[in-house]
Amino acid sequence: MASKKQRIGVLTSGGDAPGLNAVIRAVVKSASSLGWEVIGIHDGFEGLLGTKSYRVLTNADVQGLLPRGGTILRTTNKGHFGPRRSDELSETDPYVRAVKAIEEMGLRALITIGGEGTQRIALELHKLGAPVIGVPKTIDNDLAGTDRTFGFDTALQVATDAIDRLHTTAASHNRVMVVMGRHTGWIALHAGLAGGADVILIPEIPFTIERVTDKVHARDAQGSAFSIIVVAEGARPRGGSEMYIAEGRLGGIGHWVGEQLERLTGKDVRVVVLGHLQRGGSPSPYDRLLSTRYGAAAVQAAARGIYGEMVALRGQDIVTVPLAEACGYLNRVRPHSDLVLCARSLGIVFGDEL
Ligand code: F6P
């Protein structure tokens, strides 16, 4: 009798990021080389609940996906999958229902593409016996266990391009540009360096507005009529906290910095909040490649029966790391890392200078 065709599932969860479709494509193509069937689950983990929402993905379905932003499977931010209240195996628990659905669908593996929130859900499902394999996505690059998440490079490109454009309009106005990154400063630090910012403010290095003002004055004295200040949305003044514009939405820091600078320098300041543009558009070549390597490696992990792990970039290599490690802490910028030291040696100010 012919053996039953092997099946794996794939889903995208949390915020979108450039490269999601490229991972899906790599998963489908790699699985099809093994003769496996791929089930694409819609709307993140939500597609596993209720009447279930999914479809079979063939090579034809992923044609032309490599450069396409967004996700053909759609995504949900947590949905029913909040923190588990207890270890009870209640029939109404969404985690228990999802594990049952994975079994009913006959999936030998479920590839979960997402950031920290997604991999936490995947870890819980794994603890209940589900054969999950994570793929690290987020423009923030804040997921532990990997040197790089896909999506980051594209966001960096958008942010750097925005700084270049700001330079050409700055002439006599100081510019404050807020970039994303949640509680970490990876995008601000990289884009600030790549775009030639004068000041970079990141959550990992609390700042004082006086030091920022000193830099603006110093540039003024040298004949530079404007300064470019790149601010991570999670940056905070020394002794202060992160600034939200609404419940759970960072971004208030830019206007605060702008107002304080105007007050202290008497000069005009304009504030730009770059926002979701950083998550849009076609993935960069680097992200296409990383997404493709991650998708193929996730299928390889499934072939080797490696579950409860996340594919990750370590140096030049793709490896797998335990999901528990990926969810254990946030990957933050080290204040004494070479990138920060490099920026300081160029005269870029972080606002903590003595
Ligand atoms: O985690 C990705 C991210 O874009 C963060 O940089 C940002 O703080 C957050 O998501 C924005 O979330 P939302 O899309 O729900 O506004």
Could you explain the architecture of this structure?
α6 links the parallel β7 and β8. By secondary structure, the chain is an alpha/beta fold. It has helices at 20-33, 94-104, 116-127, 152-170, 186-195, 209-221, 253-265, 285-303, 323-326, 338-345, and strands at 7-12, 37-41, 54-57, 109-114, 132-136, 174-179, 199-201, 228-232, 244-246, 249-250, 269-273, 309-314, 317-322. The protein is 35% helix and 18% strand. It starts with 6 loop residues before the first strand and ends in a 9-residue tail after the last helix. 47% of the residues are buried. The strands form three sheets. A seven-stranded mixed beta sheet has the order 3-2-1-4-5-12-13, with helices on both faces. It has a four-stranded parallel beta sheet with strand order 7-8-6-11, with helices on both faces. A two-stranded antiparallel sheet has the order 9-10. It is built from ten helices and 13 strands. It binds 6-O-phosphono-beta-D-fructofuranose. The site of 6-O-phosphono-beta-D-fructofuranose has 12 residues, from β10.
Short description:
It contains ten helices and 13 strands. With 354 residues, the chain is an alpha/beta fold. The strands form three sheets. The protein has a seven-stranded mixed sheet, sandwiched between helices. A four-stranded parallel sheet has the order 7-8-6-11, with helices on both faces. The chain has a two-stranded antiparallel sheet with strand order 9-10.
